Fold each of these.
Amino acid sequence: MRDNLVYKILKNHIVEGELKTGEPIALKIDKTLTQDSTGTMAYLQLEAMGIDRVKTKKSVAFIDHNMLQQGFENADDHKFIQTVASKYGVYFSKPGNGICHQIFLERFATPGDTLIGSDSHTPTAGGVCMLAMGAGGLDVALAMGGGAYNINTPKVIKINLIGKLNKMVSAKDIILEVLRVLTVKGGVGKVFEYGGEGVKTLSVPERATITNMGAELGATTSIFPSDERTLEFLKAQQREEDWIELKPDEDAFYDEEITINLSELTPLTAKPHSPDNVAKVSEVDDIKVDQVFIGSCTNSSYEDLMKVAKILKGNKVHPNVSLVIGPGSRQVMEMIARNGALADIISSGARILENSCGPCIGMGQAPGTNGISLRTVNRNFYGRSGTLSGQIYIVSPETAAVSAIKGILSDPREMEVDIKIDMPDKFLIDDSMILEPATMNQEVEVVRGPNIKPFPIGKELSNEINGKVLIKLEDNITTDHIMPSNSKLLPFRSNIPYLSEFCFNTVDTEFPKRAKEYGGGFIVAGENYGQGSSREHAALAPLYLGIRAVIAKSFARIHKANLINNGILPLEFKTIEDYDNIDLTDDLKIENIQKSLDEGIVNIKNLTKGYEFKVLVELTKKEIEVIKVGGRLNYVKLNI
Ligand code: MIC
Ligand code: SF4
């Protein structure tokens, strides 16, 4: 069988297992990235592993999420990451240098290599043909230590692009179309490989917008071939030597193929509160807009902001709109400052933010009560903006800029302006905000502020679990529901006891109290439980509150791995009736767990209602071992 692009990279990196759809494999990881909000935990875990120095080709620590510094916590965490990174051989991108995925694409991404990052949008680097996956902090720490990364062999889906985008239609509209067709759970267990004639019409930053938001499909990752457009980008980043040509064999095998005709696409939007709630902008009623945010790792490249500047030039932001713009990196910011585009943006009345995640993760710019906010971000989950009644619409930079001028959600094709941007021959290169780590035998003192608290470690699995159902949830619960993030909570990412007080806060403020009162218990959920972020905190906070098992209709990939890594049992309902029959505070009992796990099926007694039901154990042998010893850290220690 002829190889697709994904299999070519997998074959070069597989160290354990067999490439057969669904079968577990372990991959050698070439590079890693962390960001600050998951990074503190990842480096605490790296320290706990007791290695001297990272063993990857390159590992980079970024500071981009938690930038407000309302108190000492952020600044302390930054110092911790800077010093611990230096000590262990990790490059450090200083706060202000930009968003991890944008900088990684610009300065570090290399075709054909593997990357894992403690952030779900790590697949952005698939835009230059890396096999790049989001992972929990512990998996990233293990990869830094030279360990392999475990996934199930994915199905490979070809997205065949034909035609060419029309004026004012954007890469964002392509991925929104994919989300419309496949939904937020349509990518679980799959890698999306883009191919076809339309690929060469897309630049690397456009490709990166698409692979970035492939995370919203629940996919393992997304990837583009490495071709002359990749070379053009790497050359302009003065990294020509990193280029290799990489494409699928002719007549390569794919599990499925989906064709998208770029010429037929029109501007799209994802309406509140899900990235797959997609509609044509032209078919949505005229909605009055309160706020527009252009930025985030999805749409903050030089190309994106140049297009926005061309639209804004000579225009003013509508009196009722607050337009905020956050460039993706210092490279982008400095280039638009030097060529005058920033002046056009400022002159329109836009507010300029620093190069960071900002409003995307609720770090400021929360909309007002019932506020309508158009954003170029990738996620519009309920409550994520920081305002529960906020209505977030995901749009392209073109739609965002035109709507900011008009004051209503507008189809950008209504505006006559030439926004064609050529890729610069040379980007502005200045890596002075990327600090090299200390040399091998240099002494580095790791600085640890008082906000850094020890993290909970799972305990050996007992043979019987008793407990109450502490919460019953619907389908598509996100990690933003489980462990919300906003400007008040992000500073406490290294303080699980504090964070756990806010576990499930957006859906049920009583959950932490109930969990404590009953001494822990079970979470019951619907399909795709834990979609979204890679934050391990969505497993650690429940672990701290005594959760022993989550019973769901199905799980999102990264969150399931995080539960396993922390010793929480993920169990899957066999029938919808079994889910329907359970109620909040029902008493459940599982006996003989050790044996049942090996057999792949677990019997649960509902003591309150007096019946029994069976749930599935969709775990590999190794994952069962990990759970039995109370999580991966224990497993690694026992197996060294
Ligand atoms: C996100 O976009 O949800 C985040 C914030 O970047 C997360 C990481 C985190 O929760 O810290 C992610 O995507 O993994
Ligand atoms: Fe940052 Fe938002 Fe991207 Fe997450 S999705 S990395 S919060 S910009």
Amino acid sequence: MEPGLVQQARQHPDRTAVLAEGTCFSYRDLLRASAGAAGRLLQGAADLEEKRVAFLLPPGFSHVATQWGIWRAGGIAVPLCTSHPPPEWEYVIRDSGAHLVVVHNSLAERIRPVARRCDVAVMDDAPPEPDSASVRLPSIPPSRRAMIVYTSGTTSRPKGVVSTHGNLEAQIETLIRAWGWQPQDHILHVLPLHHVHGIVNVLCCALRSGATCEMLPGFQAGEVWERFVRSPLTLFMAVPTVYSMLITAWEASPASRRKIWSQACSKLRLMVSGSAALPVQVLRKWQQISGHRLLERYGMTEIGMALSNPLEGERRAGYVGTPLPGVQVRLVDDQGKPVESGTPGEIQVRGPGVFEEYWRRPEETRAAFTDGWFRTGDVAVVEKGSYRILGRQSVDIIKTGGYKVSALEIEEVLLTHPDIAECAVVGLPDREWGECVAAALVPRSGRSPDPDRLRLWAKARLAVYKVPQHFLQMDELPRNVMGKVNKHDLARHFPAG
Ligand code: MCA
Ligand code: AMP
């Protein structure tokens, strides 16, 4: 048995699977390169048997071939983000227990000291040998664990979300059905490849459909607009911050360019927004500029996508629609009882796309479920049959630029700075980023850390989107009678942005 993506690829070997670095790679190329990658990973063994393989590769054909190679060899794929600083890589490598890191040449020198400390091997992403298509590969059942994606939450360090091949298949299938993916589709990929949005919704859905995935090295607004003009795109998916940045670039360009950019959007059949709340003003402005009413949907790393506005029919501004095919959703009150329509409740989700477990965290896994329902920690209400997201139960979870970050994780790192005695991190509303990370600091006596130097210090330890944008020095943090920092109160101390 082969992963569904691989079986599907055999149906249309000559179609273009990936377009990257100015080159078209067919499904045949992908089958061959991924078999080659699998052969190199197996090194003569019959099956990797869920060994974890971390990979640190920029977006492009080699990234995809390696991901498929890990799956075809029976391993668990653990994507690392190329822009993260080494301590973030080290955490993921150690926590996942990866035995190997596959790395691009350009990043080999940076990962090597980490690999040495973690005692893992490093392998380059060499092109396939001519005979690689003949490598014998193991049979992969749907229950086989496929991927670990790290997600921040209410615990201080990120947890590894384990999805099986069956979970991924279910997450992909529901989106293909709901959004009408076709082999003729052509999507532009600008999202990071260490999260579900970029991995499942864009890359895997495209490849499962026999469509073309055009990959950019990263997001850059002007380049994306030019691709809208030059490439035969039918689909685009991104986070609200990306749409805001595209709007800003459009507004800053001359009228003649704006016209060309706007006209180019008419060839796309669908544009989707998700990962964070889409402000109604962004939805409206984007509709004026592009003629597209964004389809907003709601999901989470642990469950894939759960709720979506319709492909055909009314897409209500400020709403995330209804459950996707095969996904069960309910709202419950504080006692765990389902609520009536019109009453807010926690979103709980059940279905074949829901993840297997948090890696090596049985307690947290158990605590995340009630009677088989996954507890998202998000609060919503159903109005006229459609879900509206109201917010999150925890103030310690911040969504910035579409990334979920944990206030506790950032606090833990800041407290290792020699000048900081106490600190508390909050998310402040931000027009462009949705929320931005802000930190209140109580310095050690006689110290006054400089914000710019503090940011540089933090950037060497944390992903850039976790690094506080604002610092506020305080004599003491506002605490309640129990001594707990009152974060709602704290947010009000920061100057309005
Ligand atoms: C970067 N910068 C920021 C942030 N990130 N400032 C404030 N808040 C932030 N969050 C600053 C950097 O410090 C730097 O400035 C400058 O922006 C450029 O940094 P860079 O990393 O190059 O930014 P970018 O490439 O422009 O990134 C913006 C982005 C990115 C493209 C919107 O954040 C992104 O790709 N977001 C998507 C995340 C995503 O896919 N989430 C899905 C999670 P300086 O140099 O001055 O410091 S999966 C999920 O949520 C579920 C399943 C779902 O529902 O989808
Ligand atoms: P992640 O853990 O990175 O998968 O982020 C999932 C979280 O993103 C969810 O729990 C929500 O809080 C948030 N989210 C995703 N889509 C939306 C949306 N359309 N509107 C509001 N919040 C969203």
